[in-house]
Fold this sequence. Notes:
Oligomer: single chain
Distance between the termini: 55 Å
Number of helices: 10
Radius of gyration: 19 Å
Amino acid sequence: MSRKNKKNTHAILRDAAPLRSQAHIFIRDKIIRGDYKPGARIKERELIEALGVSRTVIREAIRQLETERLITVEPQVGPRVRVMSATEAHEIYLIRATLEKLAVSLFIQNASTAACKKLTNCFKQLQKSLDKQSPAIIMKHKNAFFEIIYRYAENQVLSSLINSLTSQSWRWRALGLTHPNRDPERQQRSLKNLSILHDAILQKNRVRAQSIIDLEVQDAQDEILRLINLDTGVQ
């Protein structure tokens, strides 16, 4: 191992994914987890030193994050974490509900028995994760549950549309799991909703599955808007 890699514990692997992709994921995950707070500056020099990559790689990653609406680049200031607004949250949840209802319908139509078993396994892991009370683990398994639905809906255009919202959706999800003023009962309600959703999917009950998507997304939106309003002083 080189001296550089010994010094930089976050130095990324040249033999794995492209450097830009690894840098993008590293920065994105810090934003989603809240390590970089809304409005905080993203310091290129610190990232270059932490990851052991060039300025070009970091700037390419930042441009990608800007297209995902996680970062804004201000003249004479540089990149900052994009501040989340209540209006934007409402718009994202509105689109998310529509896309997820379509994904659920297509999953019911197209998914094989093997895909349904994968969904059940993901749901069981999600149930177990709530006992550990770890936001990172809960978010990992909740994301995996929905990713199974998206993948086996077998519609590439739908998948692309959902992926375009993924980073922002994860950011809201992380906020709901980690905010100091979060509703302590929210995750239990979410688990109950996803349990009903899981059963409705296996029973091929489209109407029931889509109605529970509406309920879950509305509850998630209400919680996020409440937290955003608390942070911005809106009553």
